[in-house]
Amino acid sequence: MERSIIHERASFLRDFVFAADDGIITTFVVVAGSFGAGLAPSVVLTLGFANLLADGFSMATGIYLGAKSEVEYEKSKNDPHWESDSPVKQGLITFVSFDIAGVLPLLPFLFAIRAGFSASAALVGISLFGLGVVKGIYTKKSPVKSGLETFLIGGIAAALAYAVGFLVDNFVV
Fold first, then answer.
1. CA end-to-end span of the chain, whole Å?
2. What's the CA gap between 58 and 122, in Å, rounded?
3. In a domain? residue 15
4. CA-CA distance, 150 to 152, in Å (whole number)?
5. Residue among 89, 84, 105, 109 nearest 20 (CA)
6. What is the span of the domain harbouring residue 110?
7. Distance set, CA 173 to CA 42, 120, 168 (Å)
8. What is the pLDDT along the chain (173 residues), one digit of tens a residue?
9. Distance between alpha carbon 74 and the CA centroid of its chain, in Å?
């Protein structure tokens, strides 16, 4: 396979994994922090969707501007063998991946499931593990090891967010 095609596919995989992982984690940290602070489910949904759309857009534009800068820099070096990825395509992959994956932690609250936080945590854990498995398959690494790595990193972020929400609610406010 031609090197530029491999590079382009690797860039898209990077953007997909990065955005999906960040979408799941950042939305769930909003859920975990809100739940830790004892906020109502309607507040969890409001904050979650605000985060989902604004952060997804911010990440997409950041990837677009970063990729565009990379393209412009490489063009400035007049390399005749250089071929660029599409910054617009990279931004779109980032936005769509972030928002689709990021809505998962909100589903239990959206459907008013009684144990919303527990259901959200379980869904997030399964989603993070699954994302890691997919990454492992594409990179020809151990899918289980990759799944556990992604799960553990996301779990640490969620635990930190819950602790901050709990501590602020109980000791600061």
1. 58
2. 27
3. yes
4. 6
5. 105
6. 3-117+158-172
7. 20, 26, 6
8. 577 788 788 888 999 999 999 999 999 989 988 888 889 999 999 999 999 999 999 999 999 999 899 888 888 887 666 667 789 999 999 999 999 999 999 999 999 999 999 999 999 999 999 999 999 999 999 999 999 999 999 889 888 888 888 888 888 86
9. 28
